[in-house]
Amino acid sequence: MLDLLVRNATLPDGRTGMSIAVQGGRIAEVTAGLDAPAAQALDAGGMLVAPHFVDPHFHMDATLSYGLPRVNQSGTLLEGIALWGELKPLLTAEALIERALAYCDWAVAKGLLAIRSHVDTSDPSLLPVQALLEVKRRVAPYLDLQLVAFPQDGVLRSPGGVQNLKRALDMGVDVVGGIPHFERTMADGAASVKLLCELAAERGLPVDMHCDESDDPHSRHIETLAFEAQRLGLHGRVTGSHCTSMHSMDNYYVSKLLPLIAEAQVSVIANPLINITLQGRHDTYPKRRGMTRVPELMAAGVNVAFGHDCVMDPWYGMGSGDMLEVAHMGLHVAQMTSQAGIRQCFDAVTTNAARILGLKGYGLEAGCDASFVMLHARDPVEAIRLRATRLKVFRKGQLVAQAAPAQSTLHLAGRPGDTAFMPGRA
Ligand code: FE2
Predict the structure, then answer these.
(1) Distance, CA 57 to ligand 1 centroid (Å)?
(2) pLDDT per position as a tens digit, 395-413
(3) Mind listing the pLDDT tens digit for each residue in 108-147?
(4) Neighbours of ion ligand 1 (CB under 5 A)
(5) How many CA atoms lie within 13 A of 85 on its CB side?
(6) pLDDT tops 70 at residue 276
């Protein structure tokens, strides 16, 4: 007898009437119309069942701190970094852990079961690192949390930056981070990329750098990152996050850059909500969108994912852990409005992001973990359009969250008002 059988599901690739059989926390079979005895049976009613959402770029040490100690008045990246500097001396491990755990609850409710979070390693106390390692341990039964050692103040620019980052890796942080565009000079930025990639190669770790989060078309650290990935044989293990300067680069230069990124198998993460908010701040009009060249990167064969980056922190006062909101913004900013483009944006918060994290057992195939989401939508396009309710969220075969469909009842003159319906559903 199966542990769980989900029947009549629509899958992200368009297959309908599918059954997903679960045994021992894993998917035993995905077949059209299968009916077999199961301890728990669920009729999806034609709704979309997708592998869980994955956020490949987040800052869990800063999340839910909005307004502490004050609100970012200008809304700029640099005031956000300054504000984070003001908040850091006030941080306690307890409060940081409490906020991170609260965010993980939000995430699970939204079917977001894997997050890669950067953690600031600039302060020699490494308090955020200790706190997030504790959070990682506590959420492990229901959420995969991967940590990136992130030298927010610049690994070369800040005193002890390299040592602090190495200590964070010694403590068990999973990925080598960086922020080359924040170093004092272009040369220092390039030197930091080389140093950090060599460190990752030595230790057998992946790399994920904040890279060129700037509107400056001459910020070209992604080139160095791809070159170092090639040189050190780190193919498939390196990610450039943000890469917003690419928006403003010369087209000829980009035509040379994209094949280099693709050959080095460097993945790119855009953070649409944050890029559209923080970039173009020095512009009058026209005001640049600033997000990296998502469809062009995808067309060049680069793995591109979308991250949430921030939720209610010094940089961004919005957000709720909903990766469909991220995909929704992504498709608008990138103008990926074709049906294929919208589906690519769904992939950017599911399969493409999972590839960056190197998640084992991810997917909706026999042998994969039974970690999936039943959405109140008939396909990925409708899921993004409606930011659809997560009706059921399963983690390795166990139900970890559920929600009732969002419905409204109208009370309009001359109209029967007692029928509940779902606004927005055509
Ligand atoms: Fe970030």
Answers:
(1) 6
(2) 999 999 999 998 898 888 8
(3) 999 999 999 999 999 999 999 999 999 999 999 999 999 9
(4) 309
(5) 11
(6) yes
pTM of the model: 0.97
Domains, the chain, with CATH or none: 2-46+362-409 (2.30.40.10), 54-357 (3.20.20.140)
Query: SS3 sequence, 321-345?
Result: CCHHHHHHHHHHHCCCCCHHHHHHH
425 — pLDDT class (breaks 50, 70, 90)? confident
Phi, then psi, of 416 in degrees rounded to 5: -60, 130
- In the three-class reduction of DSSP (H, G, I as helix; E, B as strand; rest coil), residue 94 is classed as helix
pLDDT given at position 417? 66
> DSSP strand E in 68-142: where?
112-120
- Spacing, Cα 158 to ligand 1 middle (Å): 18
Token duo for residue 372: 């999936």
pLDDT digits (tens, 9 = 90+) for 170-191: 999 999 999 999 999 999 999 9
Nearest 5°: phi and psi at 185?
-135, 165
Distance between CA atoms of 374 and 4, rounded to whole angstroms?
A: 14
Beta strands of 212-336 (E only): which ranges? 238-242, 267-270, 304-306
Q: Say how many Å lie between the CA of residue 321 and the centre of ligand 1.
A: 15
Residue 309 CA, ligand 1 centroid: distance in Å: 5
Burial 139-172 (b: 16+ CB within 10 A, else e): beebbbbbbbbbbbbbbbbbeebbebbbbbbeee
Ligand 1 centroid, distance to 111 Cα (angstroms):
21
CB count within 10 Å of CB 414 equals 5
Active site residues: 213
The Cα–Cα gap between 162 and 222 comes to 20
Look up tokens 């850059």; give the residue. Answer: 257
